[in-house]
Amino acid sequence: MIAAGFGFRSGATIQSLLDALACANPEGRAFQRIATADDKAEAEVFQMLSTHLRIAAQGIDQATLTAQTTMTQSIAALAARGIGSLAEAAALAAAGPGARLLAARVISHDGMATCALALGTAL
């Protein structure tokens, strides 16, 4: 099972999120989950992504996000959330216990969104 985790700024568009996803997934792997922080999961842009992809949006609580070990360390994510990468942490959490990142997070071309994919055994 593959999960796509996202981080994004308040001004991000659906194109920002789709671009980040395309950059993170150049092989076009099938994924079953999209996730971000609880407070971002209800954002209109993330709900639009959910509708576009026909995959339910999953919000991950702060305690679960901070329990994840990320590959990268974003100064902004550390300051805002106390985690190295929201995208990486969300992907790992959504993919379940023992998940591993397929690669480090990538940033959309407009700099407004990040995405990472994780492989796990969650159902």
UniProtKB/TrEMBL annotation:
InterPro entries: CobE/GbiG_C, CobE/GbiG_C_sf
Residues annotated as domain CobE/GbiG C-terminal: 2-118
Coiled-coil region(s): none
Residues annotated as signal peptide: none
Name under which the protein is recorded: Cobalamin biosynthesis protein
Species per Swiss-Prot/TrEMBL record: Paracoccus fistulariae
